[in-house]
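[Structure tokenization] protein backbone as discrete codes

[Encoding] learned vocabulary of local backbone shapes

[Begin record] amino acids and matching fold tokens:

___
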Amino acid sequence: MAGARDLEEYAADGVLVLGGAAAILLQLADPVVARAVAQHSSFATDPMRRLRNTLSYVYAIGLGTEQQQRLVAGFVNARHRGIPGAQESEHQLWVAATLHEVGRNLHEQVHGPLAPQVADAIYAANARLGTLLQLPDGAWPASRAAFAHYWEDAVGSLEVTDVARATAHELLHSRAIPRWTRPAMPLVRTVTAGLLPESVRAAYGLPHHPRRYRMAIGFARVLVRVTPRRLRELPSRRLLAGLTGETAAGPPAV
């Protein structure tokens, strides 16, 4: 049976950072989300902000105190208020689903398959990714099998618009990021393209290099083995520690 420690180790793993851009691109493949991001966010001037806020939200839900969870969820819900479609359950479910699926997929590729009972516990816990965004009770698929059906149908109905493609380019080729992080962007682009479903990747026009992707995942596996857990969990600790300061400047957008 999965324990609290299993859930904490999964939620705190810094490998999640590598999947952040893929989750955002999947969200943008919903035209309603893409339009809201383009019209009601600072993506054009600070494309990395959404990535930071997305990761902060995920870490707060998985690891934060009840106060931190209420704080970040309250800001997100306030930011969505008045944006057409932002509070509709169909779109909220999709955003939450991308966060769960990309995280699970990347975790298993780097660490290996999750034990069924651990996977079930993580899936059940991740329902809060949506319910804290006002997703109605019962909207989250009842089981991992039900989620797999939902995911397949949802991916098949996505539409990558010109707005989504332009926003994705701003994220993956941003010049607004610190200089010291720029050498990592080719790796981020490789992993992002590899994590996307083939149809979505093609719609974005992203090149996919399977050999480079396998090498990138292999590198991540080695890094996980040689890096102390405290360092691997540094992104989660830093983002949670900065959560109050980030939200003080304005409501983050998941």
Q: What stands out?
A: DSSP finds 16 helices and no strands in the chain. The two ends are 31 Å apart (CA to CA). Confidence is low (pLDDT under 50) at residues 246-252.
